[in-house]
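Table S7 (text form). Paired inputs.
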Amino acid sequence: MNTYLKTSLFALIIGTLSSIEHLAAQSEPTYNSPYSILGIGDLVDQQFAASQGMAGLSAAYHDPFHLNPLNPASLGWLRTTAFETAVFGNFAQQEASNGQTDGVWSGNLNYMALGFTLRNPINEALDRIIPTFGAGMMFSLVPYSNVSYDIEVTSPLSESLNSIGAFQGTGGTYRLNWGTGVRYKTFSFGVNLGYLFGRINNTRRVFLEDETVYYFDDFADDINLNGFIWNIGLGYDYEFKEVNKDGELKPNGKKIAFGAYFNTDNSFNTDSDRLYRRVYSITGSSTLPVDLRSDTIVNEVGVGRSGTLPAAFTFGASYIDENKLLVGIEYNATLWSNYQNEAKPDQLNNIFRISAGVEWVPDFLSYNNYLERVRYRLGAFYQNDPRSFDGEQLTKLGATFGMGLPLILPNRQTSFINIALEGGRFGLQDVITENYIKFTLGFTLNDNSWFFKRKFD
């Protein structure tokens, strides 16, 4: 294993441990997303930067240089060791139904992953083997959901009395994943096994104050969540063939790829702490702490409960002209009506997502025009959200643009800087809508010396 790969593996391990420590220390919202008060928060797209530029295509997407964490069957096509990581920045202009607006910035580390092929292409070239079998493996850490909101609502009860509700939430869940995939000729199969973990903190305070009475209700829920999740992926490529100069029928580099991945319901466990109390003053003022009284309503520590994450299915197809063009379409359905969480019950709805994307390379062999070697990506998608208000589900509509900028590292292996830009609209017109733009900067570092067997004459 060369120095570059040792450094990448070390960075993945240290980054994973640092991320877990950082998550446990979170105490305040990093941005304000009011809808994350429901369910387990805002669901985070699991795709990596290259796929994000094509509206998140994943079912029928496989690439010899890039990792696809959603369909593990794609690992059978991996032809190099790849270390991937990315950062993102997001700006959302939120608008409430009463016309109030607010601009919200957010950003963070997006993901980390290390994948490698179990059959080295250099060995195959030296042995003059035309490979019919491929196998790959991957480890990754990816956010699964995010909870971050800070809301205050004032309700007049009389001319001199107002009720003020303050709601705050932090935390989220993360997926630590191991995936493996195998390929025989144009058939591929893979399995993802993941560990879902995280902590969600919710607080609710209701204040009531006038000249004769002062009190507030303070409700705090801390939920630790963990469980094992999985999915299975399948793939098949139909290759077009033509007769070569030797009169043999051989693939011509054009094909149609079909892919799918799915999972049944996954269970999880929670460990919850609850502290509900009422604080009041006998003088009707909050300025004299000596007069404050506190009554505990609920005090629970370490209460174990269970929950269920829903079954999901994704299917896609892509037309591929190798090293030139990829055009794909994809459909996803997730049965969020099966979601259960005894620690924080919420009623969610089934969802679907439709995506379409394209990747184009003008001339990947160009030696005097760098822009012709760049991978240009476009995409668009529409989806609804498991959360709803008054029976109407949230929706999300967006378009994407991306570029894969090839780099030649000292080991002569092509690596990439992947840029993805996504803009769209999310929410409900009669509640809160947000126009957002998200920028992702990803790094894909490749090396093909993993498992390289040196031979001497």
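Next pair, protein 2 of 2.
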Amino acid sequence: MSELRQAQLIFVIGPPRSGSTLLMRMLGSHSQIYSRPEPHLLGPLAHLGYFDNVDAAPFDHLQAAQAVREFVADLPRGKADYLDACRAYADTLYGRMLDVRGGGKCFFLDKTPANALILPFLSQLYPQARYIVLTRHPGAIFCSYANSFFDGDFEAAERFNPILGRYVPAMAQFLRQQAVPICRVQYEELVQQPETEMRRVFDFLGLAFEAGTVEYGAQKHETKGLGDPVTVNRQTRPVTDSLHRWADELVSAPHNLIRLRAILDELDDDDLGTWGFPRATLYRPIEEASQRGGTTVAKNQPWDRFRVERRILRFLRHWVHRVPLFERLVRAMRWTADVLLRG
């Protein structure tokens, strides 16, 4: 097995529903870049106790964090030794996957949205990797998130995962610090000028531009795994259909617009400016949509496996802890599975 070098790693940093799957498909269409659906390898590493810890775990996470930090303090190089150990774990998995499935390609691309929430750890772990930071209008991101996973229920979406409040500050701070090699991409520009934007990205990566990366639908991609390939699979190249649709739908759904405004009002002005959407122009797409008269939100979306899974998960998340019978049933099923699988 060949040894993975940091410069062979590419991280696409972006929140859910920012167009990161599209960008991953385009990058993965290059003859030298191997990509696969979200591996989620680094989030658990970041929460093992030294840098951060989980809120709940099947062990005493606070005690573990204290013990790990005391242990690392006595190592010859302290935190550097700990990072070496974490890096060895990730290098082994990235490197062997690239060897086995990469088909001779030189770069491994990791597009895991949750990586945007561990950027201080990630940038210390891989300071020489290449980071492509993808931003999109915050309103478009949240509308897409609520429509895709919560059937347009903005309140339920925000309650389950306040993605703008989590991702915008974290990524804005990362962009301001510029501690690692970064190439910024804005979704709106990517879909309108895909060739120009991809030439710029590949120049950053030190790779020659290949026209097939824009026509990503003609390439073969690994799709088994986490992520949301539904929308991107319906097209063969970037399209501009979604640029204004979110704002048009908001104009026709005033209750959702009020809720979105409340969410956006909580974001820091400097973070919005760094993100690329200063507050002074933040609502311009909605104002333009209002002049167009808006549009009705499509209710009869085609059913597919991903939509069915989302509907089931949403139902379970909502009811399992609210109805004691459901919670007891889930616990009983888990106990039964543990017994059957034991030994």
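The mean pLDDT is 87.
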